[in-house]
Amino acid sequence: GGGVGRGPGGRAGKALGYLWACLLVVSKDYGRVMAERRVALRDRVALACRVMDDASLSASLRTLTHALVEEGDLSALLLTGLNWRAQVLLSHFLDATGDVQSATLLLAFLPHPGTQAFQYTREWVEEYRDLLDR
Fold first, then answer.
1. What does UniProt give as the signal peptide span (predicted)?
2. How many CA atoms lie within 13 A of 77 on its CB side?
3. Closest CA to 23 of 7, 39, 9, 8
């Protein structure tokens, strides 16, 4: 069965991901290291900052950020920061999960009311208020 530590998401899967990433580093295949989902994003970014040249690093981070934002993966906040890109990320997150509460609570850290980003997300706040009123 799929017990703890088994399969791609378990400890064994993560350990294999890190082992695989080590082999990719030795072969200087940094692009594939950046794509290795079994390695934590913070570790992939830290490695890339140490071993990639500026142009490759910039291109890899752009590609990775775009992919994570499109998937609605909140770990992308590490790369986007809390700005307009985070609003796009939260929109994709909401589409993927339907988690209005998390998206709305994260909105509290985005630009203040009256800015363009806030206008697009005001309805999330209203939906969350409606949810709380039930």
1. 1-35
2. 12
3. 39
The percent of the chain in helix, strand and coil, each rounded to the nearest 5, is 75, 0, 25
Helix 84-97 / helix 54-71 crossing angle, nearest 10 deg: 40
- Cα dist from 120 to 31, 88, 95, 99, whole Å: 34, 10, 14, 17
Q: Please state the φ and ψ torsions of residue 106, each to the nearest 5 degrees.
A: -70, -30
Residues 54-68 have a mean pLDDT of 94
Report pLDDT for 55.
Answer: 95
pTM of structure: 0.72
What is the residue-averaged pLDDT of the chain? Answer: 80
Which one has a higher pLDDT value, 59 or 120? 59
Q: What is the pLDDT of residues 66-105, one digit of tens each?
A: 999 999 999 999 999 888 788 889 999 999 999 988 988 8
Task: Look at the block and give the residue holding tokens 């940094």.
Answer: 30
- Taking the alpha carbons of 19, 64, 73, 1 in that order, is the dihedral positive or negative? negative
Nearest Cα residue to 121 out of 129, 132, 131, 113? 113
Dist. CA 107–CA 8, nearest whole Å: 32
